[in-house]
Every structure is written in C-alpha cells, then in structure tokens.
Amino acid sequence: MPELPEVEIVARSLAAQVLQHKITAIEKLDWERMVETPDLATFRATLPDRCILAIGRRAKWLLMTLDAGWTLALHLRMSGNLTVQAAEAMPDIYTHLVLALDDGRRIFFQDQRKFGRVRLLDPVGLAALHASLGPEPLDTQFAINDLAQLLARRNARLKPLLLNQAIIAGLGNIYVDEALWYAHLHPLRAASSLDPDEVERLYYAIRTVLQQGIQNHGSTLRTYRNSYGEPGNNQEHFAVYDRKQQPCPRCGTPIKRILVAQRGTHFCPVCQPDPSALPITVENNR
Ligand SMILES: [Zn+2]
Questions:
Q1: 143 CA → ligand 1 middle, Å
Q2: Which domains does the chain have, with CATH numbers?
Q3: Which of 86, 96, 180, 246 could form a disulfide with 31 if both were Cys (CB 3.0 to 4.6 A apart)?
Q4: How many angstroms is it from 252 CA to the middle of ligand 1?
Q5: Which tens digit of pLDDT belongs to each residue from 39-63?
Q6: Ligand 1 centroid vs 208 CA: distance in angstroms?
Q7: pTM of the complete model
Q8: Which residues are catalytic?
Q9: Ion ligand 1: residue ranges with CB closer than 5 A
C-alpha cells in the first residue's frame, strides 16, 4: 500500500500536470463514505471552481492546496490511485471519484478496496491534521536527536512504534521492515533499549530506504501507480520485504516472516538478532 515514497511520487507527478488548473465539477462520486469531512452537501458545493495552487504531502496524505483557503486531502490507503486522464477516458467501476478540470482532462480516484479517504479542509482542519502526525523523517529539520527522543522511554517494540503515524510520519509495513534490516535491528526490540549507535543507524536507515523508494519511483506490489499510470520499480530492490525464505542480501540466511501486531514482518534472523525469548506469533506456512 502506498507509503511516504509512493505518495510523494503521486504528489510530484500530479503537480507536474494539474497546477493552476481549476476543478470545474465533481463528475462522479459513487462511494460517498470516502468523503470524511465536511458533509457531502458542503463538499459538493465547495469543491467546484476551486483552483489547484500547490500539491504536497504530509505523512501518507496527499495535500492539494486550493484557492479560498481550502485544502483537498486525499489518502490512498490500501489500493487507491490518483491519475490524470484525457477527456475521452472512461472511469471504470473502481473509480469512485472523478474531478473535471477546466481543460477537459479529469482526475480519477480509483480504489478497488474502497478504503481511500478524502477531506476538504479549512485552515483549522489542516492545522489539526498536521498536529495529529509525527515529524517527517525526510525533513531537513529532523535530526538524530529527534529520533532518539521519540524512542526514549517507550517500551513499544520498534515495528509497531515506527508504523504509528502520530510518532513518526509516512512509514508503513514495507519501509519499516527495510529500515530495520538496514539498521541491523530486530522488529521486536523495545524502542527504549536502543543505544546511541543503534539510534543513529536507524535514523540513517529510515532516510535511506525512503530516499531510495522515491528515487525508484515507489514500490508497486499490486495496484500502486503514479499519476501518469506508471508503476514504480522499488520492489526490485527490497532486501527483506516480501522475500520470505529468500537469501538475506548481506549474509545469505533465509529471510523470516513473522506477525507483529497483525502485520507481516520480514527480517534476517542473523543480521537482526532476537532481543529475547519473548513469545512471538509465528505465522502458519501459507
Ligand atoms: Zn542477514
């Protein structure tokens, strides 16, 4: 599912195509639960005639800055795709939101699983969204000491902690597994147990895997595409994610997959030593 690098790529590819264009109409909205706020009547009344001034990203949210102080925030969740389509393109049954642009092109929000969400936010709502999210790991202001403070005094294990968007923004299952492998850290290590060297390794590992993800145009496992409809190729560079039983790129040991907080978690049992004999749920061999 799209994480920080994928949403960043969608934001950039969308910005390259639709900046300074006006949204003239909501042509299709057939899955009304995707609109979380405001109420549907206000959403339908406010979005048309808004000009797209900027497109950015916060955590895994794509933020479309509109005129009159509005921001359209879109979350792709499991299977969402945002693409720019020619005037003659026909939306399929999985395309639940179609925004018409002033030059005839349309923006399609396609989402097979229907977990994707949209919010039309005023400045207060946008500030609340920002406040609900942890720091951006690629922000130039984000320093090793900031990560150290996020981890200190927390007994949570690294995997669920790093997935928590309120702690640190943008990481999901793929990039947490990859970062922990780069940092030689077991996913079940307690956050507060890391020494300063380990914190520094994790800091650079997180930034490295995210930057590589962006450089490789994101990871396409199933549905992810950029807004031109093109897949990424970062999945060809995974060290551990989705590589159960395949050799660790560093030591050749078969990669293990366990469940941590209901999430499939991949690691090298040699490079990432088990912190203890704490009980873990080993997934059935399916
Ligand atoms: Zn290894």
A1: 28
A2: 4-131 (3.20.190.10), 144-267 (1.10.8.50)
A3: 96
A4: 6
A5: 999 999 999 999 999 999 999 999 9
A6: 18
A7: 0.94
A8: 2-3, 60, 263
A9: 248, 250-251, 253, 268, 270-271
